[in-house]
Each structure stands twice: as C-alpha cells, then as structure tokens.
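fold-stage: in
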Amino acid sequence: MNPSPSSPPNACPACGQPNECAMASGADPQDCWCLQVTVSRAALSRLPEQERGQRCICPVCARTPDPADMTTPGPQTAHL
C-alpha cells in the first residue's frame, strides 16, 4: 500500500498503517516508541522525498533491516 501525501499524521508514510506516534496522538513526545529504538536507515531511505520529515513511520517499518547491516553467518567453530 502506498499512502498518499495527504494521509493523516498518524499514518505511516511507508505502509499507511497507524504509526503510533505520541506527538500525532497528542501525548507527551517523551513517551514515543521511537525514542526507544534505532530506526532503520533503509526504511527511511525508501520514503518518497516529499514524505521525509513530515510524518513518523510505524514501528514495523522502523525495524525493517538495512541490507548493509545484515551479515551471513559463517560456519561455527568450537575452541577447545
């Protein structure tokens, strides 16, 4: 789903689902979930330019891993 730029402030600009933003809901910004997590750079980079800095993304989109941060585990070895 691609939300429109006119979507409400509590809608994630990436997926259109509720973004759970404390500020958008009128709550104390210090209580917002986004202050407790690291937001994926990949998720932010996928936003259309006109949506950046306008509305918060949702917790699910914020946790979308950045492929550059993902590594393929190698063989496990035991040290005796």
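fold-stage: in (second)
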Amino acid sequence: MAEFTPPTIAQAAFQGLCPRCGQPHLFAGPLLSTHLATFAERCSACGLDFTRFNVGDGPAAFLTLILGTVITIAAIIVELTLHPPLWLHMLIWLPLTAVGVVYSLRIAKGALMAAEYRNEAREGAVVAPPDDQDA
C-alpha cells in the first residue's frame, strides 16, 4: 500500500482533501455544483469510507448564527454610513448570506470530518481517559 501524507485539519477543510491521503476527493462535487457540501461515499484514491463519520448538519446552526451576526453588523454599518435604499440592502445582503453559509458549511464539515478522523472519533464510543495514578 502506498504511503500517504495526511493533511492538516485546515488543509482538509479549505481544500476538500481526504483526511487520510490528502487527495481532493472529500466532497461529491466541485465548488460550483449541487453537491457542494455533500461528502463522497469514499475516497477514490485510498478507499477511506466517509459514510462511517457522523458529521451531520452540526456546523450549520453555528455558521448561520456567526455569519448572520457578521452580516447584520455589516448591514447596519452600511446603513448608518451610506443610507442605501432597502432594495439595495436586499440585493447585497441576501445573496451574500446564502453564499457565505453554503461555502462555509463545506469548510466546517470538512474540518469536522478531518478532526473525527484524526482523533479516531466514533459515534457512541466514550472512552475513559488513561489512569495516570500508576506513574
């Protein structure tokens, strides 16, 4: 079997890399597709089964809250300094929010999967910490 150099969590997240081999096979589709944040079933390079990881939609709520806060603050600043009409606010902030959430969801899901792989996390498996009292 070939030697793989695993990417860092940030590399896996931002570039959509497989957490085991570092090849760009983490997602089912490219950046401009309907499968933007959908994981592939397995890495076509090393065969890592992505379905065994439980990423789910956990990052979605946090990203929506964080981006919503940032975009709301930006919209208020723009309103107080430039006073644009309401239709211009809608034209700017609604697409920016939607695109920001979708693309950051891809990054967050990639980071969570890479962290699960690196820490060997499994669903429902709670492991007691090692007993250091023997030292």
